[in-house]
Specification:
With 254 residues, this protein is of the alpha/beta class. Strands 6-7-8-3-9-10 form a six-stranded mixed β-sheet, with helices on both faces. It has a four-stranded antiparallel β-sheet with strand order 2-1-4-5, with helices on one face. Strand 7, helix 6 and strand 8 form a beta-alpha-beta unit. The longest helix has 16 residues. The radius of gyration is 18 Å and the shape is globular. The mean pLDDT is 92.
Amino acid sequence: MSAAFMLEVENVTKVYRLGRIKVPALRGVTLAIRPGEMVAVMGPSGSGKSTLMNILGCLDRPTGGAYRLDGEEVGKKSDRELASIRNRKIGFIFQSYNLLPQLTALENVELPLIYRGLPARERRRRAEEALVRLGLKDRLRHSPRELSGGQQQRVAIARALAARPEVILADEPTGNLDSRAGEEILAVFQELNAEGITLVMVTHDPNVARHSERILRLADGRIVSDERVRPQERISARELLAVLPAAEEGVNEK
C-alpha cells in the first residue's frame, strides 16, 4: 500500500445474515482516497453507502477484503483497537446532529475529549476554540433545544474538529437544513478540506455533491462510477452564499 492514500479499501465485501439468509451489502468494493481529498458518495437507498461509511469509520468490519487507514490495516482489529483508532483519527458528523440534550454546546463538544484522557483545561480550551471558529461564541452555554438546526450542526462539526481528526466522515450533513444553512455548512467543509483534512460525505443531492472534487456512485453494493469534478463545475459555497438571501432569524431547518 502506498503512503499516498489516507483511506484504501481493496475488494471489500460485507454480508449480513438474517437467520439463514445472506444479504450482501458490499460486493467487491475497491477505492483509494488521498490525504486532503473531498469526496461525495451518492447512491439510492440500499446501495451500500451507509455500510461503506461504517467500514471507513471503523464502526464495522468487512466480511472480506482489506481496509487500510493511513497505511494501517484495520479491517481485522479488535473492538478496543477500532475504538482507539476512531478516537484518534476520525471525526463523525450526522444528519441528526446526535447532540445530548441535557448538555450545553460546550459540554457536547468536550465530551469525546474526555474519552481521550485530555485534562479538563485542555478539553475546555479545544472546545471553546472549535465553537468560536464555527461562529458560536455567543452560544457556548446554550442547550441543543435553544439552537437552530444550522447551529446544532455547527456544534456537531465543532465536536468533530476539537479532536483534531485526520478524516471527517459526514452522513447527509445538510439533509435537515434549508438552502442557506446547508450552504454555510458546506462552506465550513470546503475550508477544512483546504486545510488538509480528508472529507467524505454521503449525500442524495447532486448539487451538494458538486461541492466536492470527486463523486462516487454506488448501486447494489458496487461502485458504478468514480468521477472527478472539473474545477469550473465545482461549486464554491462562499460564492453561492454571497448571492443567496440572508437567513431569517431562527429559521434554517427544513
